[in-house]
């Protein structure tokens, strides 16, 4: 029996009718699937701004009381523009000033209210998910120093996929001695999350230029930060009294 000739890759493609069109259709299907994944990782809210604003005040007040601060959350001329952007972002509104597929890095001076804004956003998000038993992951709100300690004890792989808010980003030690080896836990995690496309938010007292210096994360991680975050500035001085 005559042995069948093995065809080269080029021959297989050439004898297959409409090979290019078939491959183009396959690529389109892959793009659709990946776009759906991007949409699904976002937690979108159905609220009008007036409703979102009212909920933000109430959950912001709840956050303050959790800190044992017996006062109400106040929206003013400094934080309202950011809250409006959070609403646009949460409703996938094209009025959002950045890229709706990226996370948010809220930057500003010490004590100006960055943490309470994203902590409130996190509390509202998680409360809705749990109250209505939604099939969506909770937002992990964690300080950079604590996150670094947990990565060192466990592994960066434990924190790669889950959506998270890193509070006080840039305040942690950039390098750690681990059995004689110098490691960079947060830098490693950022690289992994960037590769995975995991949704990351953060607060920081530092600008992108500062975070990209060698004293912080360096230019390579700085480039990844540009891919991962919309940089939004919260104006105003310290609110701490």
Verbal overview:
With 241 residues, the protein is an alpha/beta fold. The chain folds into two domains: 1-41, no CATH class; 100-233, 3-Layer(aba) Sandwich (Rossmann fold), CATH 3.40.50.300. 47% of the residues lie in helices and 12% in strands. The strands form two sheets. The chain has a five-stranded parallel beta sheet with strand order 2-3-6-1-7. A two-stranded antiparallel ribbon has the order 4-5. The chain starts with 8 loop residues before the first helix and ends in an 8-residue tail after the last strand. The mean pLDDT is 92. This is ATPase. InterPro entries: P-loop_NTPase (IPR027417).
Please give the structural blueprint.
Elements lengths: L8 H7 L3 H23 L7 H18 L13 H11 L12 E5 L6 H18 L8 E4 H10 L10 E4 L8 E3 L2 E3 L1 H12 L3 E5 L3 H4 L6 H11 E5 L8
Parallel strand pairs: 1-6, 1-7, 2-3, 3-6
Antiparallel strand pairs: 4-5
Helix pairs in contact: 3-4, 3-5, 7-9
Number of helices: 9
Strand order of the largest sheet: 2-3-6-1-7
Looking at this structure, what is the CATH superfamily of the largest domain? P-loop containing nucleotide triphosphate hydrolases
Radius of gyration: 23 Å
Count of the separate structural domains:
2
Dominant shape: globular
Strand tally, please? 7
Reported by name, the CATH topology of the largest domain is Rossmann fold
- Largest sheet at a glance? 5 strands, parallel
Q: What is the end-to-end distance?
A: 92 Å
């Amino acid at each position: 029996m005559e042995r069948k000739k093995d065809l080269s890759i080029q021959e297989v493609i050439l004898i297959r009718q409409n090979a290019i069109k078939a491959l183009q259709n396959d690529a389109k299907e892959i793009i659709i699937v990946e776009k759906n994944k991007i949409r699904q990782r976002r937690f979108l809210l159905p609220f009008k701004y007036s409703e979102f604003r009212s909920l933000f005040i109430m959950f912001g007040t709840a956050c303050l009381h959790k800190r044992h601060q017996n006062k109400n959350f106040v929206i003013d001329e400094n934080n309202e523009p950011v809250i409006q952007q959070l609403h646009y972002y949460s409703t996938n509104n094209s009025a959002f000033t950045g890229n709706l597929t990226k996370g948010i890095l809220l930057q500003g001076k010490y004590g100006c209210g960055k943490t309470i804004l994203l902590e409130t956003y996190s509390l509202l998000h998680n409360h809705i998910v749990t109250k209505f038993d939604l099939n969506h992951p909770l937002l992990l709100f964690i300080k950079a120093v604590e996150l670094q300690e947990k990565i060192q004890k466990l592994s960066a792989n434990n924190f790669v996929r889950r959506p998270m808010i890193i509070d006080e980003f840039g305040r942690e030690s950039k390098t750690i001695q681990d059995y004689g080896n110098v490691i960079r836990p947060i830098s490693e995690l950022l690289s992994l999350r960037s590769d995975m496309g995991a949704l990351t938010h953060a607060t920081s007292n530092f600008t992108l230029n500062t975070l990209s210096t060698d004293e912080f994360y360096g230019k390579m991680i700085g480039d990844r930060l540009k891919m991962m975050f919309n940089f939004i500035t919260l104006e105003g001085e310290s609110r701490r009294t």
